[in-house]
Amino acid sequence: MDIDPTQPWGTAIDYAGRATVIEDGHTIHVNVGDSSLSTVIQPDSITGRHPSVTVTAQFTETGENATVLRGYGRITIDPAGADPVLPDPTAVQRAVAAALADFRANTGAYAALCAQWTTDGESDGGSSDASDPEATV
Fold this sequence. Notes:
Blueprint: E1 18-23, E2 26-34, E3 53-62, E4 68-77, H1 91-115
Antiparallel strand pairs: 1-2, 2-3, 3-4
């Protein structure tokens, strides 16, 4: 993902902390938000620290027969000392990279699971609790 140097978070973020980026042919939804329960950014009354900021990136790809693969990435930015979190232009890029890595891992795991099964529904040696398809009515 290319970082836009004119944007504090490396990409354009809307008023609600959302963005959409296209990476490796995927439409990835990004959300930037803090961990407070308030709309006012201020230090926590107990700890005296400002809230952490979380950047998430997620997407799904669907296929035939309602198959779905997901990718999810999350980056947390903690405040330094008593100062609030400053925008990190690489945070969205890192969250998107994590989502793409998660998607690739899920794709590999899904392919490995599918490879355990033959076309007639019998296992190629993977463990399964499924009963014999001939015996079920």
